[in-house]
Specification:
13-stranded parallel sheet, two-stranded antiparallel sheet, 15 strands
Length: 123
Amino acid sequence: MAKKRESGLPEITEGGAVSTVLGRETSFEGVLEFSRPLQINGEFQGEIITDGVLLVGETARIKANIKAGTVVVGGHITGNIEALNRLEMLGTGKVVGNIKTAKLQIADGVVFDGNCEMIDPQN
């Protein structure tokens, strides 16, 4: 089990310690590719691609299609999410878009507007 911060997001994930944080005051647009765990607390628009772990903080506002190994959502995402390993939505999370994932965990209070497709992690 991952050790969690007060914000509810883990500081150590299955991919290791969070190596990069885009802070609240950060605004970024484009294609974001990475391999080590990344946390977004600011605004992002574009596309996110990783085999690793993406943490979306409570203050994050993301408009992007996301393809990742694991996604933990505490903020707002508008766009489709494909999480090959796991998708976890915290109580503060909001997702407007379709999701595909092998494992799904949804906390009380989550807002989800879209379709969900469960996938085989072996494919």
